[in-house]
Amino acid sequence: MSSRSKGKGKCGTPRGELQFDANFESGNLGEVTRLNDAEFDISIRPDTNNPKYRLWFYFRIRNAKAGQRVLFNIVNLCKTRSLYREGMAPCVRTTAQPKWERMPSKSVFYYRSPAHGQSYIMSFVYVFEQAASEHFFAYCFPYTYTDLQRYLYRLERRALPFVHRDEIARTLQHRRLDLLTITAPDEDSTGPKLGTVFVTARVHPGETPASFACQGLIDWLISDDPAAVKLRDRTVFKIVPMLNPDGVFLGNYRCSFVGVDLNRQWQAPGPLAPELVAVKALLQVAAQTQPQLSVFIDIHSHSANLNSFMYCNSHDDTDRLEAETVLPSLMDARSPHFSFASSKFCRDPNKAGSGRRALSSTEAHCYTYEISNYAALNAGTGTIVPFDADSYTELGRSMGQAFADYYTPSERHK
Prior knowledge:
This protein is an alpha+beta fold. 23% of the residues lie in helices and 27% in strands. A hairpin with a 6-residue loop joins strand 6 (91-94) and strand 7. The longest helix is centred in the C-terminal third of the chain and has 19 residues, at 389-407.
């Protein structure tokens, strides 16, 4: 009789003695403390070379017993304002059920814990239904560097005449920094281009919804939708789908390999931020050549707010300020999960080093597109609609449709 049939897992460990690890791409797990057979304290590993940021987690558990019920406490979150208050739950998948899903909100608790010095902790209860499966838990739906490389490889293999892939830099850990250019070739265009749109995503590694939305945008831009075909004819899209590959690979929440928040380095990026040096050089060229840079969008996700929305630059020039409202208004019209009312127009000095603020001196309209890590709020019914990977991707497609409206004013809202 096998050791497994006797109630033991790999290496003879008794079934039910849980084994934790995060030895895979984008994994994040700190210390695990067993309180008893049914409760564990789990700490998040801080970002590499920066102890300040602890929010993203992604770990694996093996050797559970079928029907085993366990309480897990995430004990060192770096933020107290959290969507866990609204019902957000970790994501889970197993080797038997490989599609990521959110856990039921009723299994998740967010509270000040007397046992942890009154710190806020997030606890969740989980029942292991299948003993043979490996179980994976994550803060939000994972999207890794390898996921992106596979997607870009498949896209490149299609040899579409209006898509071009370039490697514009190597990171400090020697990973690719990719740029996609999407536009109709000059010989196929019906007239001059109206502008260049520059899109970046995943400067903050733990903000995985940004990657799903960016992929949704790309999918729509290269589609046969007549509006997408016309948009390619009229514009040039330059897209950097993953601005912080090292941080993503390492399982960081906010920083690069060297512990730098790249979204505070845009004003004067140096040798520790080769990604920004390369992208900023491209943006400077786009701002001075035809078709001129007209829109810049940096896609993020938000850990405390519902819906998707934009941070926009505020201007003293009322005409420019009004023009700044056009794109978020069109996105509001295109997606029930985008909220113009939640969008903010500001000149926050604390964010002067962000892409949106650093590029505000150009003629382009610059935005930070934020997407909730959890859900949208239905304004009509007041109900919360949780996001999943598919709905994050759909937000990207809606963004593409809004751009089509933006560059074809006569056809808006059709």
